[in-house]
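[job 0412] stage=fold_complex status=start
inputs:
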Amino acid sequence: MTDRRKRGRGERAGLTRQSVLDAALELADRKGLRALSMRALGAELGVEAMTLYHYVPHKDALLDGIVERAVDEIALPAADTNADWRDAMRAYAESLRTTLLRHPGVLPLVATRPAATPGTLRAVERGLTVLRAAGLPLGRSVDTLNALSLFVIAHTAAEVASAPVNEAGAAGSPQALAQLDPRDFPLVAEAARTGAGTDDAERFRFGIQALITGCAALLGEPSRD
Amino acid sequence: MTDRRKRGRGERAGLTRQSVLDAALELADRKGLRALSMRALGAELGVEAMTLYHYVPHKDALLDGIVERAVDEIALPAADTNADWRDAMRAYAESLRTTLLRHPGVLPLVATRPAATPGTLRAVERGLTVLRAAGLPLGRSVDTLNALSLFVIAHTAAEVASAPVNEAGAAGSPQALAQLDPRDFPLVAEAARTGAGTDDAERFRFGIQALITGCAALLGEPSRD
DNA sequence: CGCCGAATCTTACGGCGTAAGAAACGAAAC
DNA sequence: GTTTCGTTTCTTACGCCGTAAGATTCGGCG
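[job 0412] stage=fold_complex status=done
writing structure:
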């Protein structure tokens, strides 16, 4: 954010672990993960690459850091004890998706790394609280929350993967799919042509709804219409 | 497979695109993605790094290739028109999981790249066929199949991520989780202590079951017990 | 002032992906 | 058998990467 162009002779950059992570996150989102090198990040901050090692022990820690920074942005599940847990979970999933989509550069990392940072733990704890308060057994609460978050992460990761940074349509785009031989893949071609199941947000909503409905059913909850 | 140690003077290596991809896949699974460099792969095959560029235009294509090679191993959904689509999908999900788990090195790639290779298209087409034959509308078939595959991929990716190659327990392991302060995260700590929701296979089965049940419910299928 | 710890820079090493071209081979053409 | 030619393999080199080691410069405190 603050303009990092060319410090005067013997004037410090005034970095923080936080400011370094923020710049890294911003750079990854803007130019993609591949463009996030220590030297490039240094240049972005008006500093040599090695300087960054005063704020971060190695690059992997930097990556962990930006994941955590992005995760910290996610809003916790609402602890409204009056609301149905299904509504709470649906709202949480929706908000998790929009937050993750705001950081396309980090999504490959989120989908790939084990998630046991304080930030994620906080969200998980809150989620479990909501589910337990609704009467679900602990084990099933874990299973439910796990299934929901994994689906959200995978779906958003797939969304950004098929629309890469600064790039024309990828191989998975509907346009590309529509051009394959209907004799080889009739249904896929038809879906691409008619646009069935093409809208990311709607497909996402369907998956979430199915997951929540299914969990409720397996747990013997009364169905609602 | 074939012993690649030290060809005699002026004796060819006899590589194929397939053999190169196979070796790359095997190397990635055995030593992890980070260890898969062109030079290392060349050494594995008894050949200089640049030689590989006769079989693959660049490293990204190599990665795409090993993903496709792994994907080709997945068994297509059974087209048994007598069986319930729910059973077919559950079996497919289960088999997809075991296949993916056989290639831990490739999972980060699968979870990350857009999937529009012939192999995946074949599986998708078959899945859509099954669902359509059961009477689901095309759009919903796409949504259902999408939700299922994404969940499977995300879950298996999470499984291998929390048990990395040749490594002691990662940060997300139950042991590590059990040691955090119960005052900060009481439910997470309790779950870790009692082992609730700890079994990967069972948690997976729950998610799949929930997803399928939920999709059926949303599509107005009669419930079964 | 002198000193010290923190912040920054310099230099350097080994590894990476890969561009460019030389070299060695096998098979077909003569 | 010799020549030719396309395929396969190797050699060399460039610029990038992460980062180890250490010199340097700074602000603040005695």
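[job 0412] summary: Chain B touches chain A through 63 residues (CB under 8 Å).
[job 0412] exit 0
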